[in-house]
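Data card: per-record layout.
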Amino acid sequence: MTKNLENVLLLQGGGSLGAFGCGVYKALVKNNINIDIIAGTSIGGINAAIIAGTKNKERAEELLENFWMELSDSFVDLDKRGFFSYWPRLMAQNFFPDYDFIKSIPTNLTKGSDIKYNVSTKVNEQKIKIDQLKSFYSSAIFGNDKMFIPRWSSDYILTDQEYFKPQKWTYMYDHLSLIKTLEKYVDYDKLKPGGNPKMRLILTAVNVLTAEPLTFDSYKEQITPKHILATSAYPLYNFRWVEVKDGIYAWDGSLLSNTPLREVIAASPVKDKMICLVENYPPRIDKLPENLPDVYHRTRDIMFSDKSKHNVRMSKVISMYLNYMEELYQIVENNIDKIHVDEKQLKRIRRKYRKYKQEHGAEIKEIYYITRDEHHPHLYENADFRPETIKNAIREGEEKANKAIKSNKITQ
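The structure for this 412-residue chain is written out next.
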């Protein structure tokens, strides 16, 4: 990325998949690639707030990784929870009835045979699927006390007036605990106009009542814990809406767009941009879904995949029109005496020229995609906070970004 342009980092939402973005940011920092604007929604917004408002001025990437490791440390291992210690066996029998049969096939078959390879692969795949289901049920039943707590927790018996009236519930998980967790990571004084002149933070949400987009910009207003709760209040995760202002109720911005590029262009419409886009949801797959869970998984990926290519094309078209207008304007200015333009009309032309020149014209010069792979895709992967899963996601993000940088796809 070059210094004469604004360098923008876009972070998509995606629950626990946001650990991938942590790894990407680590690689950018290690390669001395500075970010001017960081924008995110949902977990991407949380990552962005930690980066822009970091309490560790010199090592923001370390603080972000610490946040993710704290989330993973709060993961509840079902194998260590009494009745749930039998969970793997129950799930294997109910969800994968051929699991015991596959495991019983002798493994001392001909060395290197296709049979032995296929059996081993099948057992490994089903073990991975069982671990994935366990991680989902862990999050669904116990939540993650550093980020979201089930509403049926005994902690709420005395404080929740609707505790025993689930028919009136509009949410099932309370993510207020996230704010306490962020206290050790975010300096909110940096997230206000003039607070961090080196990095601009943009978060997105949506108005529950009007479906209108909401944009929270640290260069224009104080970003507070409420804004972070709002950008991550995803209703299909059963999180509550957040009242960010009187009468303004917000849900997660990914309901409108999981890639907040248009909000960046609207906030900074003049300077050209170099974009690094972290994709938690791969836009392309190699084969069609094979069953209904695969269909639902692919549907979700398409819903949350990046759809900003039109914005990129339009930025180039607008730049082309503005350059053409510039040429025509200069012809007018350089030939005022010859063409005899009316004085009032000339004032209008000059006023419109300044307005358009000052308020529009940002072109996306380059956009770099850092895309997460799905080695073992499943529908509930964004609720997997197992320590090994989080560590692997951070590592993959860092490796993918480093590869892009080394191949000169991203330049300093």
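Known properties of this structure: The first helix runs from residue 19 to 30. The radius of gyration is 25 Å.

See the next section for split statistics.
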